[in-house]
Amino acid sequence: MIASTTMLWGVLRSHRILPRHLMLSSRRFQEEKAPKVKSLPPEERGRYKVATIPNAICAGRIAATPLIGYLVVQHHFTPAFALFTVAGASDLLDGWIARNVPGQKSLLGSVLDPVADKLLISTMFITMTHAGLIPLPLTSIVILRDVCLIAGGFYKRYQVMSPPYSLNRFFNPQVSSMQVVPTMMSKINTVLQLSLVALALASPVFDFSVAANEAIFALGCATAVTTVYSGLQYASGKAIKKL
User: Fold this and answer.
1) pLDDT digits (tens, 9 = 90+) for 54-89
2) Are 178 and 240 in contact (CB under 8 A)?
3) Which parts of the chain span the membrane according to its record (predicted)?
4) What is the distance between the alpha carbons of residues 180 and 186, in angstroms, rounded to a whole number?
């Protein structure tokens, strides 16, 4: 019955028996469902690409995150510090490639890069708290903020997406495209979080002095303040825009 209905619909369309407004509505739905990337200007085509160098680097950083966390839990701080340094350098590298190499900046990358960063930072905060390197209250603030950001991002995506709703269209960057644009405070917070993790992880490796550890504590306080402030900015929707 379904096959017969589908065939009848196709015949009616091919012979232009359907009313014009129904044919136009069907055509608009198909264009919304799958925009023709080839019809876009060359500088715009990369926005919908998945296989890019920055995305591959982000995927590698995500894959390395559990290993770094495991090393911290096992108190193997020296190799953990080395791998974390490489991961931080890869974050700078994929950002530079996306900004400077034509066709490498994508909508997926604008989402995948902060996700990879947050996964790495959250893993480091949790495992380093387990190892006694970062206080639990600060880790709780960081993790709560990230969970709220993820939940808020999914809700914002649902808000800006046009019907019909499905998982395939929800995760399709070509449908109701949106982009995550970090705020200045968020960038400062990311730098502070990475610096705190790097210094706290380096402390047992290089046997920091008491004064150095007190400076790390002050850095943790600044990190807590910027974490809360940038989280409120994301909650207001300033970092997400519809394209």
Assistant:
1) 888 999 999 999 999 999 999 999 999 999 999 989
2) yes
3) 191-210, 216-235
4) 12
Cross-strand partners of 153: none
The residue type found at 162 is S
What interhelical angle do 210-235 and 184-206 show, nearest 10? 150
Whether the CB-CB separation of 224 and 141 falls below 8 Å is answered with: yes
Backbone angles phi, psi at 72, to 5 degrees: -65, -45
From residue 64, alpha-carbon distances to 28, 80, 82, 115, 201 in Å are 43, 10, 12, 14, 17
Q: Which of 136-145, 162-171, 222-231 has the lowest mean pLDDT?
A: 162-171
Q: List the structure tokens of 105.
A: 């900046």
- Cβ-proximal residues to 72 (8 Å cutoff; 6+ apart), any chain: 80, 124, 127, 128, 130, 131, 133, 201
Cα angle 75-80-84, degrees, rounded to a multiple of 5: 145
Quick one: DSSP state of residue 9?
H
Q: What one-character DSSP code corresponds to residue 165?
A: P
Between 122 and 170, where is the model more confident?
A: 122
Q: Among 166, 183, 51, 52, which residue's Cα sits nearest to residue 114?
A: 183
Question: For the whole prediction, is pTM greater than 0.90?
Answer: no
Rounded mean pLDDT, 217-236: 89
